[in-house]
Each structure stands twice: as structure tokens, then as C-alpha cells.
Amino acid sequence: MSDSSLIRMANQIAANLKNRADHREAITAHLKSFWTPKMLTELKELISENSTDFDETIIEVAATL
Questions:
Q1: How far, in Å, are 54, 57, 58 from residue 31 at the CA level?
Q2: Degrees (nearest 5) of the Cα angle 17, 20, 26?
Q3: Number of domains in the chain
Q4: What would the pLDDT profile of 10-62 be if each residue is shown by its tens digit?
Q5: Which range marks the domain in which residue 27 is found?
Q6: Per-residue DSSP letters for the chain?
């Protein structure tokens, strides 16, 4: 999957769940349920390379995965 697709998808998840009181937990659950281990690894690598492209909550959640 392309880097831009992963960035877009991650940020969309954060945007869609941001109004929930448990948004961090909901994002974590979504990523664990629907993203493959390879996608999660790529997400973490992209964040370490350039975190400015990501929603702050995605950065926080990725650190816990």
C-alpha cells in the first residue's frame, strides 16, 4: 500500500472517531481489528520518518501498538 494511502486512511479514522469520549481506545480497536500487522508496521515507520503528516491522536495511538 502506498504511503499516502496509509496516511490518508489513518487520518480519516482519527477524524471519524474524534468526537467520541473514548476516541483513543476506539482508534486502537479499529487499527487492531482491521489493519494487518504489515500496515501497522508501515504506519509506525511513516510516523517515525515524518510525523507532521499525521493527526496527533494517531501518533499517540501508534506508540501504544
A1: 15, 13, 10
A2: 60
A3: 1
A4: 999 999 999 999 999 999 999 999 999 999 999 999 999 998 999 999 999 99
A5: 3-64
A6: --HHHHHHHHHHHHHHHTTSTTHHHHHHHHHHHHS-HHHHHHHHHHHHH-GGGS-HHHHHHHHH-
| Residue 2 identity | S
If you search the block for the grid coordinates 496509509, which residue do you land on? 6
d(CA 23, CA 50): 23
Q: What is the pLDDT of residue 55?
A: 96
Q: Quick one: pLDDT band at residue 64, thresholds 50, 70, 90?
A: very high
